[in-house]
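Input/output pair, single chain:
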Amino acid sequence: MTPLLKRYLETTSRRVEKTLERLLRRKPEEPESIRQAMRYSVFAGGKRLRPSLVAAAAECCGLKSSKVMKAAAALEMIHTYSLIHDDLPAMDDDDLRRGKPTNHKVFGEAMAILAGDGLLTLAFEAAAANARQANLRAGQAAELVRVIASGAGTSGMVGGQVADLQAENWRARPAFGGTAAGSAIDRRAARLLEYIHLHKTAALIVASLEAGAILAEAPPAQRRALRSYGRAIGLAFQIADDILDVVGDKKKLGKTGSDAKNKKLTYASLYGIDRAREKASALIRQAHRALTPFGSRAKPLHDLADYIIARDK
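Output:
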């Protein structure tokens, strides 16, 4: 990670942490237990990638990042809700997340489900509040909510998670799998894998970028460029995750690595490590090209793209 990107992420994280702290203060009318469970996962660490993308996209389109912190917090809450639910016994059945016991291990399955529900709904409250503060017109405010909902819902992240569940216990045929140099790839599996991660991972990343652009009242061409960038880094991010699940330091990752245990279809299992890395690098080059219209204003997004495939956790 470059020093410039490190400072940028640290600054954005501090700002979004303060916003999350305000949004997650207990209200007199709600049970203390639900707020504790929500806060546990939100403040358990993490890269705060999606809030940083909201902020950087807004800046690319001419708006100060300080003006989009509630929307940035909204995307982080949606991401956190998805992790809480992903870790449940009915899903990935993980005991650790970011080096700490998963939410259901601490608060029980029922409370973990409700904590995820609470974060998802609070996210839309925060996004709507940001739209009001930005004095967006009614149509723009509705578009902000629509974009976030689409990225999170059945046409986005949830749809990808469903496809991911259905791909469990996948097995490459002996002639396929891409584990040897020059071996053939199962094209049907490759299409399924791309579908899963364009939806499960990339859709919320694209929504984060579009949220920043909408709050900045960006023109359609800028939103298209950011969508192209987001799809590319979203897939590259997932490829990097799949590779780290195989070769990464589990202590740094803060999880036990359940993909192999669940026999999941991944870029590492389908393409092999070397070819997966090549694919990620090609996607990052594509992401850089998409940012050309923004010039120097896109420096944080360029740096984030490079960091995605260089990270070790």
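The chain has a mean pLDDT of 90. The radius of gyration is 19 Å.
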